[in-house]
Amino acid sequence: MQVEEKFLTIGPDDAEFSILLAHGAGAPMDSASMNALAETLADAGFRVGRFEFGYMAERRRSGRRLPAPRAETLIPEYLAAVTQFATSGPVIIGGKSMGGRVASMVADQLYVAGSIAGLLCLGYPFHPIGKPAQLRTTHLQALKTPTLICQGTRDPFGSLEEVQDYALSAQISLFWLDDGDHDFRPRKAVSGFTLAAHLQSLSSRVSAWIANLRPAA
Which SS3 state, helix, strand or coil, does residue 10 take? Predict the structure, then answer.
């Protein structure tokens, strides 16, 4: 794993595709969940870069737990990260939870410009916990960017039972991890699945999805 200026990168430098990920609202880019996801995707042959929004970087410097700002205010930071992320091949943008949500807000702008090849959301926060009526899906209804959302079936930010009734763009593919929570952890005693098995399934699905991507017309 390498730190290249503001980015934490892992995976082969000569990978055909690179994946740029932002963290969720409450955990940094090197949280246990982000580390596991990045390592799994790197093992599948992708170059994975991670970066932190300014408020999270300030938490590291100050030791104070600054609250996450509104997602839309982080758009300029995500756009800047895409510009600064050094890569020689196609880039997939995305992130964990809020990071994926911010990426989804800038995806069409970048995709139409030919700057990215797709969008990968890992545990999308379809609504705040306990507030299923406050949907964060309006911009997803007409999304033009090829998108893969990986979601646990019992994610409190959007479960299978809830999301299956949402109106989403035909460009969005959903991959469900049985009994997974927001970090894809299943209850082994209930479902028989393990987190390791789910991460491997996620990696395989991401690989298959990326293999079918085509540039914007």
Answer: strand
Q: Which helix (H) or strand (E) holds 130?
A: none
In this prediction, residues 163-171 reach a mean pLDDT of 96
DSSP-derived secondary structure letter, 52: -
Contact 33/183 with Cβ under 8 angstroms?
yes
What values do phi and psi take at 159, rounded to 5? -85, 170
- How far is it, in rounded angstroms, from Cα 42 to Cα 190? 30
How far apart, in whole angstroms, are the C-alpha atoms of residue 104 and residue 120? 9
Q: Cα(195)–Cα(86) distance, rounded to whole angstroms?
A: 31
Structure-block tokens of residue 160? 């299978």
Smallest CA-to-CA distance from 97 within 138, 128, 141 is with 128
pLDDT digits (tens, 9 = 90+) for 26-63: 999 999 999 999 999 999 999 999 999 999 999 989 98
**174 forms bridges with which residues in the sheet?**
149
Whether 38 contacts 21, CB under 8 Å: yes
Would you list the DSSP string of 58-113? HHHHH---PPP--GGGGHHHHHHHHHH---SS-EEEEEETHHHHHHHHHHHHHHHT
Mean pLDDT value of segment 97-113: 97
Distance CA 48, CA 23 (A): 13
Helix (H, G, I), strand (E, B), or coil: what is residue 46? Answer: coil
In angstroms, the CA 110 to CA 93 distance is 10
Nearest to 116 by CA among 106, 125, 124: 106
